[in-house]
Amino acid sequence: MNDDFYNSGLERAKQKDYAGAIEDFTRAIQINPYFAEAYYQRGLAYYDLEEILQAVSDYTEALKLNPESFEAYYCRALARVALKNLPGALADVDKAIRLNPHYAAAYSLRGIIHRKQGYIYEAIANFKKAAELYLQQKDKENCRLCLEKIKQLQPKENPAVVLQPASPTAPIMSPKEYFTQLLERAEKGDTRQALEDLNWALQVDPQDAQAYCCRGVVRCKLGNYREAIADFNQALQLNFQDAIVYRNRGKARSQLGDHQGAIADLNKALQLQPEDALIYVARGNVYRVMGNYLGAVQDYTKALQINPDDAQAYYNRGLAYTCLEEMQRAFADYQQAASIFCEKEDWGNYQQVIDSLKKIQTPSSESKQARYMLLRQRLLRLVGGYWEIAQRLIEQAKRYHPGMSEEWYMEKVIDDLERDRGG
Fold first, then answer.
1. Which of 165, 304, 322, 333 has the lowest CB atom count within 10 Å?
2. Each residue of 90-110: pLDDT tens digit?
3. Distance from chain centroid for Cα 372
4. pTM of the prediction?
5. Which domains does the chain have, with CATH numbers?
6. Contact (CB, 8 A) for 228 and 219
7. Which residues fall within 8 angstroms of residue 399, CB to CB, at 6 or more apart?
8. What does 90-123 look like in DSSP terms, one character per residue?
């Protein structure tokens, strides 16, 4: 009989006769006090009548009887939001999501709670997740509503993605900082996630020129130069007249063999930002590929005047000098580049420079001394600056491998130490 009252209550609730539904659910509960679903449905009816405290009480009873009901947790969270009990609401919605990780409405509600708490980063992340789930479920209307909520959280100057750290007292991250963070992530190798985030940003706002520029840079890192150029073109069409766009489009054009187009872009970049060393290095690289080695040297030199610690500029100028057969100058630039890469512990680029040095080195005492000093510097870094440790390792290598040169022993110790670090 309690099922009859329960079913009658459901029918009355559909007809929006919430008071009648409450009567039926109450009678069903009187017959069976362990009827969890009846408590839950009565809670819904109380909520629709705006009797929020009674609704919370019924949801709580339903959860005592059925603690796996993610719907009851969600509804209690909704009621607690109405009561301004945000910590309680957040705990409930977290539980609902743990029980059902694909519960789109719960992510949306958690976004609302975080927005009320002032946590913009978390709000956007939850609305984004909700929109993705709604899209998978082909619920376009709710997906659109989530996208609208994301837009409302963005500043007017850039509605793509602006984030805020968890602390409500921390400053909101600017669009420039956010895109810089994405590029840093791509630089560290996480290009796929960076690209996904940028695709999402452009779904939120297809007119975001800065997002197109940033996605173009990431696509260049992936080797997708034609797609990157399309992104840079879109950024420029949206009037994003920035040196970064021209510099990176120039680099992409060069990779596709359009060297004249690349030079035109880099010249435009320099008009916008005449003191940017990266642009001079990029144009120098194009000149070098074109065989204009003197032009390349001039650009690398200008870059080094702006940034005297640019190891890549030294190395690239060394390559240009090598093509001009000015070996002494090339040697000096390679040596300087190796020293800076060593200081930064950038061993991949360091080894590349050393390989280039070996190709042009002559057996003079001067070149041998320079090679020895570079090896010594690198070995010192690996042993924490304690030369006594390095000497002991070298002596040990001499005992096991007698008759080799001093440089050979140093290289042997360096290789052993780096292999141990890698293991």
1. 165
2. 999 999 999 999 999 999 999
3. 41
4. 0.56
5. 172-258 (1.25.40.10), 275-361 (1.25.40.10), 380-423 (no CATH)
6. yes
7. none
8. HHHHHHHHHH-TT-HHHHHHHHHHHHHHT-HHHH
